[in-house]
Specification:
Metal Binding Protein, Guanine Nucleotide Exchange Factor, Chain A, 38% strand, globular, binds zinc ion
């Protein structure tokens, strides 16, 4: 698919022609805190398949799995752009919130579902994992 997106003011943009390896809704505490919602919506692509304007500010935190997670934000406007996890070093996770066309995102599973707040429930049709079976 053709995927494009970017931050609030367009200072940071991304683009690529690639199929997502998988699409996930993460309800972990760190994703909630950084998303501005109850979960982060993310599309994992092969590293290198997505071109991104240089200069996003990266913040690293330790996931409950013990893996380092990098979350990258526009340094000007604060929009979330992508994340990287040491558990899946070949993938880059674009924030679906930054997509130009939000319909490109089709979540396939929910992780850390037990942490979903009552005001952002996991859709009933999604396979839901209490923790994270993969990477995060
Ligand atoms: Zn998460
Ligand atoms: Zn920005």
């Amino acid at each position: 698919m053709r995927v494009t997106g970017g931050c609030l003011y367009g200072a940071i943009r991304f683009e690529g022609d690639s199929e997502p390896r998988f699409q996930v809704a993460c309800y972990c505490t760190d994703c909630r805190r950084t998303s501005g919602a109850g979960h982060a919506a993310m599309m994992g692509f092969a590293v290198g398949a997505i071109r991104i304007t240089p200069g996003a500010r990266e913040f690293t935190s330790k996931a409950d799995s013990g893996n380092d997670i990098v979350r990258a934000f526009c340094p000007t406007c604060g929009s979330g752009i992508y994340s990287l996890t040491a558990g899946m070093p070949n993938l880059i996770f674009l924030r679906a919130s930054a997509l130009d066309d939000t319909s490109l995102y089709t979540p396939q599973l929910a992780v850390w579902a037990a942490r979903a707040p009552a005001w952002d429930v996991v859709p009933s049709h999604l396979p839901a994992f209490v923790e994270a079976p993969i990477g995060n």
